[in-house]
Amino acid sequence: MPEYLLTINTGSSSVKFAVYSFEPDAPPAPCWQGSIDRLLPSPKNAGGTTKNVFEQLLEWISAHLSINDIVAVGHRMVHGGPRCHSATWLDNEKLDYLTSCIPLAPNHLPSQLELIWRFLEKLPDIPQAGCFDTAFHAGLPRVASLLPIPRAIQGDQLRRYGFHGLSYAYLMEELQLVAGTAAANGKVILAHLGNGASMAAVRQGKSLDTSMSLTPAAGLVMGTRTGDVDPGLLLYLLRQRHMTVEQLDRMVTWESGLLGVSETSSDMRDLLKRRETDVRAAEAVDLFCYQARKLLGAYAAAMGGLDTVVFSGGIGEHAPEVRRLICQQLEFFGIKLDNAKNLANAGVISAADAKVKVRVIPTNEEIMIAREVKQLLTADRKN
Ligand SMILES: Nc1ncnc2c1ncn2[C@@H]1O[C@H](COP(=O)(O)OP(=O)(O)O)[C@@H](O)[C@H]1O
Ligand SMILES: CC(=O)OP(=O)(O)O
Ligand SMILES: [Mg+2]
Which InterPro entries does the record associate with it (predicted)? Predict the structure, then answer.
């Protein structure tokens, strides 16, 4: 009887799922994949959305295979807190622990956990595994993970964790395949630009720094998240505007970023269409690209140079105009795009004479999940 793995990548604006073959002596091969995108994120509709997603998912599975042929489900877990650094089966104790981590990733963990509970309720015999976005950054140098707050408050739990790790791990493997070992071991900036957006500075294959921090609200401006803001602004809003903590949380997580600035949409496709006629959309796009450009400079400085930039994620893979705006004026440190290649979303979009290679690599978090779950299953079956 054939055996399959189901992978589920719940992002902040989409759920991407895929079924892979599971054979002990072969790498997981993709059989079917699907996605539900433009899920409007909001704290109020998270539960309803997840119920809907679960039902659509079951329908989608039964259209392709018998549910009994699925031997394990792997879920992307955005946050593993201070304890979870590698893929693991999700038993009640792990799920309780991850539930306690919700405040560290309030955009993602509630819907990720709810989907797991629905699976456990409906299909209790299929083991569920968690694969962590934070794992790729687990070895961040101390200087990058340390927060500038009193040590007594910081403890072991409060530090920069970093996210989009399944994506970054995949991009580094692909970079090695398409560009070779020397390029993969060089000074690389990975830009995962989706509804959530982050960058990572990677040298010798190791994460040296990344823009998201304790939570995925930090760093670049995003679909609905602020990214980095002046901590004084938050205090000002608490004191002078008398915002409650809940109002502040909603503002930072759900009402800011591209949506807050444009006042119309968190979706880059909409903003690119509207920016000729709506100055708010134009400003949102400009802000996004300006911040990304500044961070490229910062990470090149942090690494003492730059060999490769990789664009990925929904925006990074599909929006040439955003890549053009990010890379403009960077010729002084070797970044220069080839316009035609950029417009074609080609694999290499830098000009032939540019010092820095700029690449577009479609990410695949699902295959990383499938590989990690296969390892867990294989280890179990050996015992
Ligand atoms: N063709 C496109 N042009 C511009 N932006 C796009 C395009 N396709 C997708 N996007 C953008 O990608 C973002 C979603 O990215 P994705 O990585 O799928 O999100 P998630 O964070 O949910 O994983 C949205 O802002 C969407 O507008
Ligand atoms: C961590 C994060 O923001 O993930 P996503 O881009 O999938 O929302
Ligand atoms: Mg994503």
Answer: Ac/propionate_kinase (IPR004372), Aliphatic_acid_kin_short-chain (IPR000890), Aliphatic_acid_kinase_CS (IPR023865), ATPase_NBD (IPR043129)
Domains 4-160 and 181-360 share a fold: yes
pLDDT band at 295 (very low <50, low <70, confident <90, very high): very high
334, pLDDT greater than 80: yes
Whether residue 230 lies in the annotated active site: no
Ligand 2 nearest atom to the CA of residue 108, by list position? 8
Task: For residues 251-276, give the mean pLDDT.
Answer: 97
Round to whole Å and give the CA distance between 322 and 328. 10
CATH of domain 181-360: 3.30.420.40
Which is the closest atom of ligand 2 to the Cα of 195? 6
- What's the start-to-end Cα distance of the chain, in Å? 22
Q: Of all atoms in ligand 2, which is nearest to the CA of residue 163? A: 1
Ligand index nearest the alpha carbon of residue 262 = 1
Of the given ranges (45-49, 63-67, 183-187, 296-300), which has the lowest mean pLDDT? 45-49
Answer yes or no: are the C-beta atoms of 14 and 34 closer than 8 Å: no
194 is in an annotated binding site: yes
9 C-alpha to center of ligand 3: Å?
A: 7
Alpha-carbon distance of 29 to 26, in angstroms, equals: 8
For the stretch 180-226, pLDDT in tens is 999 999 999 999 999 999 999 999 999 999 999 999 999 999 999 99
Tell me, what DSSP letter sits at residue 181? H
pTM over the 0.90 mark? yes
Q: Where are the beta strands (DSSP E) in the chain?
A: 4-10, 15-21, 30-36, 70-77, 88-89, 128-132, 187-193, 197-203, 206-210, 308-312, 357-360
Q: Does domain 4-160 have CATH number 3.60.20.10?
A: no
Q: Parse the chain into domains and list their residue ranges.
A: 4-160, 181-360
Pocket residues for ligand 1 (CB within 6 Å)?
11-14, 37, 194-196, 223, 267-269, 272, 313-315, 318-319
Q: Quick check: 8 pLDDT over 90? A: yes
